[in-house]
Write a structure and sequence with these properties.
The protein contains nine helices and 25 strands. The chain is of the alpha+beta class. It has a six-stranded mixed beta sheet, with helices on both faces. α7 links the parallel β22 and β23.
């Protein structure tokens, strides 16, 4: 008798069942592998996926990426390069597709189609010169316009060549064209070759790759699918627990005796209400804190909103937590606005430096920068 495996048609009182996806054998809910074929059961697959996710979260590049994804927007969309025509994830570091692929493989991210682009078969870039050619002699000297066919003499030409004052006059037989459908007909958007004189509806199209000069017809190009990604709803709480900066920061500030309120609006001198990521109060001293993360150093353009909020509300202590670091220009602006900056390449480093900062009653200078070169 096999204690953790039962048939689907067995006594239901023996426990909950999970069915092997490979052979269909019914197994006890606590079973990890099917005793019939040895395949991992759904519960075991879920556990293995979770272990892989937790292990992946320990990598700094993955933590930075997830922190950025959680705080930026609901969707991770590529941007199209104006020079090459390619879609790239330029805001996410040197090799974001590797991280995206890893997170998708363990069900953290899900992808959805946003575009399909024609690409060169040789170099896979999507940047072409487009040329229209005559399908008869391949000549490039083409004109396009409205064509008139005179029924009486069968002469055809562009409408502009029939015009004579306010009338339409056939250049061949010199008759005045009066009634459309009786004397003549019009064909809109027709092409004419200046070399052979032929009229045609559809020109031959050639695509010349700007990157490698290969000449390709439209039916020869590669069709590349472009995807955007979003965090799966069921993975969000796990990401917040293991990767977000907010949870460990909240715990640290509570240990320091700071009463924390997330996203509390403060009214500024302008009368406008501003919302910070965190609002804290200790011994009647107010703290405001914002968190900003990126793949590379954070420039002034990424924190200008925080500068504006601090300038308007003028809190006693304003703290900017950044991952991984700030530029010199950002440091200079923080000094001007009296903002304390805590920067680190990962969550542990940031928490360590924030703890040092919070033990100070007041900042040592108008802007105390705990950056990557600190505490060494």
């Amino acid at each position: 008798m096999i204690p953790d495996t039962i048939r689907l048609d067995s006594d239901p009182s023996r426990g909950r069942l999970q069915s092997c996806e490979k052979c269909g054998l019914g197994c006890a809910d606590e079973a990890r592998y099917c005793s019939g074929c040895g395949a991992p059961l759904p519960s075991q697959i879920d556990q293995e996926f979770k272990k892989k996710r937790i292990e992946l979260y320990k990598r700094n590049d993955v933590r930075q990426f997830i922190s950025w994804a959680l705080r930026s927007s609901e969707e991770i969309r590529p941007q199209r390069n104006g020079e090459t025509g390619d879609y790239t994830y330029v805001m996410l570091g040197e090799n974001p597709l590797k991280i995206i692929s890893e997170l998708e493989s363990i069900d953290v991210l899900e992808k959805f189609l946003i575009d399909t682009t024609p690409s060169c078969p040789s170099c896979q870039h999507s940047n072409f010169y487009i040329d229209y050619l005559c399908p008869v002699d391949k000549h490039r000297g083409l004109s396009r316009g409205i064509m008139i066919e005179h029924y009486a003499c069968a002469y055809t030409d562009f409408e502009s060549n029939f015009k004579s004052g306010d009338d339409l006059k056939c250049p061949k037989c010199k008759r005045i064209l009066k009634l459309i459908g009786t004397d003549y007909r019009k064909i809109d958007k027709i092409y004419n070759c200046s070399a052979c004189g032929k009229f045609f509806n559809t020109p031959l199209i050639e695509l010349t790759c700007r990157m490698c000069d290969r000449v390709t017809r439209p039916d020869e190009v590669m069709m590349q699918q472009v995807y955007a990604y979003r965090i799966r709803p069921e993975a969000r709480s796990e990401l917040l627990t293991h990767c977000s900066l907010e949870t460990p920061i909240l715990r640290l500030m509570e240990r320091q005796g700071i009463t924390i309120t997330s996203s509390k609006p403060l009214r500024g001198l302008s009368g406008i209400e501003h919302t910070f990521d965190m609002y804290g109060l200790k011994d009647e001293t107010e703290f405001v804190l914002d968190i900003v993360s990126a793949a590379n150093e954070i420039g002034p353009e990424s924190v200008v909103g925080f500068f504006a909020k601090v300038y308007d509300t003028k809190p006693p202590r304003a703290i900017l937590v950044v991952m991984p670091n700030v530029t010199k220009e950002t440091q200079r602006l923080c000094s001007m606005y009296g903002i304390e900056v805590v920067a680190g390449k990962d969550t542990d480093e940031i928490i360590e430096r924030l703890m040092v900062l919070l033990t100070q009653t007041q900042p040592a200078s108008p802007a105390h920068i705990f950056a990557l070169n600190a505490l060494k």
